[in-house]
Amino acid sequence: MAKPKTRGLGRGLESLFSDTEIISNEVKLTDESAADTREEEKAGEIVFIDINDIKPNSKQPRKTFDDEKIEELASSIQSHGVIQPIMVRNAEKGYELVAGERRWRAARRAGLKKIPAIVRELDEQQNMFFAIIENMQREDLNAIEEALALDEMIRTFGLTQEEVSRSVGKSRPYITNSLRLLKLPDPVQELVSQGSLSGGHARAIAGMKDEEQQIKAAKKAVEEGWSVREMEQYAGESSAARTQKRKAASRTKRKDVQDVESHLKDVLGTKVSIQYGSRKGRIEIEYYSREELERLISLLLTVSPEKV
């Protein structure tokens, strides 16, 4: 059975919010009859919902909320109200946030009893997509939060990077480079999550292979206030040094081992490195995406003993 195509939701999110300016004759209060309220929800109109009947989104990719900015927004809400409604979906009890958690938090702090909302009927996948896309479009996520959210989309729903790329409106290389950040050492990821390093810094550090060097580079960047360009330059110099080291090592590698590496590269279609020792060693086969890993596994599984 063909796998159903995943719909891109990037543009759809804009259309959902395009008609959400609060106009007095469109706002309906929830103290009207339940039947009328349900009809309004079905039509996607703006309704006022008891703020305590709403729970946070379990799929919210944003893990940190700046308390000072929440306070600023709360002050604005006290003066001007909530200009743009939040989006919620029906839950077993009350409602679950889909988009607008920062507005909801600020409204609670401002002392609002009810908050304007649009109720949508969304399944789990749509709920996750809208939560992620809204944050990405508003640039509310740090680079690690974004990478974790994209990774969860892939793992939870079995999507390929190409499908995620279409859904969130980002290029395939963007998705790949974002996911690479999850391989960074925890201390580096923590600096990115804290805002001490930007996503640009993190991507430059991800290009460095040695974990100790990555941590060292991250700490130096923070301590010395490096720009992204300075970080890229440092990473490039480290990469050049590693290249020279590999070249020196390859010159001492036995020719027969090099010949085997070259043959395996032709067969597998990717770089192969053999670390050869008198008693033990290892063979490294590089891959750059989940699809490529699956291709290599399938290829290796087809090798019969007679062909080896």
Q: End-to-end span in angstroms?
A: 35 Å
Helix content percent band? 40-55%
Choose one word for the global shape.
elongated
Order of helices and strands: HEHEEHEEHEHHHHHHHHHEEH
Largest sheet: 6 strands, mixed
Level-2 CATH architecture of the largest domain: Alpha-Beta Complex
CATH class of the largest domain: Alpha Beta
Structural class: alpha/beta
Description of the structure:
The chain is an alpha/beta fold. It folds into three domains: 1-183, Conserved hypothetical protein from pyrococcus furiosus pfu- 392566-001, ParB domain; 184-252, no CATH class; 253-307, no CATH class. 55% of the residues lie in helices and 11% in strands. The protein is built from 14 helices and eight strands. It has helices at residues 10-17, 34-43, 67-80, 101-109, 124-137, 143-157, 161-168, 172-180, 186-193, 199-206, 211-224, 228-252, 255-268, 290-301; strands spanning 28-29, 46-50, 54-55, 86-90, 95-99, 114-119, 272-275, 282-285. The strands form two sheets. It has a six-stranded mixed β-sheet with strand order 1-2-6-4-5-3, sandwiched between helices. A two-stranded antiparallel ribbon has the order 7-8. α7 packs across α8 (172-180). It is elongated. It starts with 9 loop residues before the first helix and ends in a 7-residue tail after the last helix.
